[in-house]
Specification:
By secondary structure, the protein is mainly beta. It contains no helices and 20 strands. It folds into 2 domains: 88 residues, Immunoglobulin-like; 123 residues, Lipocalin (Beta Barrel), CATH 2.40.128.
């Protein structure tokens, strides 16, 4: 089975290609980072007339669990509102906390400055995915609600780059992606990627490789070998 991949490019003395792969989650619990829904996820809408319908949902959610309080930012490319056409929406939590059972709880405005609110909870499942439960709804004078039930979120590997000593550059990524390989290429689109053989160093919850920006342009990606 081959992974679905997505790439983007940044630049900092050398190029950086963020190579994402949707794979079964390798995380044992929710941690800071970027998570995505899997294809085919759905939610239930209860509309003003009391009718219920199932709607597709996709989301990219970024957690900062080291913040005080913990926070999230969610991008929904197909958000819905009271039967209207889907639209892109970014939402941010106004409150976050970790509950005694380890679940993270967030609430905030679904639409900023309105009475459309969200109340979401995220917990680790037995297979390592993160489960998303909660509601989004209108807090005014009528009923409209989206119910989110056990939607799986999987972590996405992301590369970061920063300057290091002696003109070097340091590339880092989350430590729960130990089974991914850092690769490089001179141009995009690349005809071939080469594995980076520099030592991988583990520090806290990050893995890092230090490279020399000896070329005018260099792109990097994380790749999980195809199964």
């Amino acid at each position: 089975m081959k992974a679905n991949r997505h790439s983007a490019a940044l630049s900092f003395a050398i190029g950086l290609s963020i190579h994402l792969a949707r794979q079964p989650s390798v995380a044992a619990a929710l941690s800071s980072g970027v998570y995505q829904t899997l294809p085919g996820a759905t939610v239930e809408e209860l509309d003003i007339a009391g009718e219920r319908r199932m709607l597709p949902i996709s989301a990219t959610i970024t957690f900062d669990l080291n913040a005080t309080p913990p926070s999230l930012t969610a991008f929904l490319p197909n958000a819905v509102l009271e039967g209207r056409d889907p639209f892109p929406l970014t939402v941010r939590s106004s409150f976050g906390a970790q509950l005694p059972d380890g679940t993270y709880y967030f609430r905030g405005d679904y639409l900023e400055g309105t009475q459309y609110l969200f109340d979401w909870r995220f917990s680790a499942s037995t297979n390592g995915d993160v489960l998303w439960n909660g509601i989004t709804g209108w807090a005014g004078g009528h009923i409209w609600q989206i119910t989110i039930s056990n939607i799986a979120l999987v972590p996405q590997p992301q590369l970061s780059i920063s300057r290091a000593a002696s003109g070097m550059a340091q590339i880092t990524w989350p430590s729960n992606f130990t089974n991914y390989t850092l690769e490089s290429a001179g141009n995009l689109p690349a005809t071939a990627w080469t594995a980076v053989t520099n030592p991988v160093v583990s520090t806290g919850d990050r893995l890092s490789v230090t490279v020399s920006p000896s070329e005018a342009q260099r792109f990097y990606r994380l790749r999980k070998p195809d199964i």
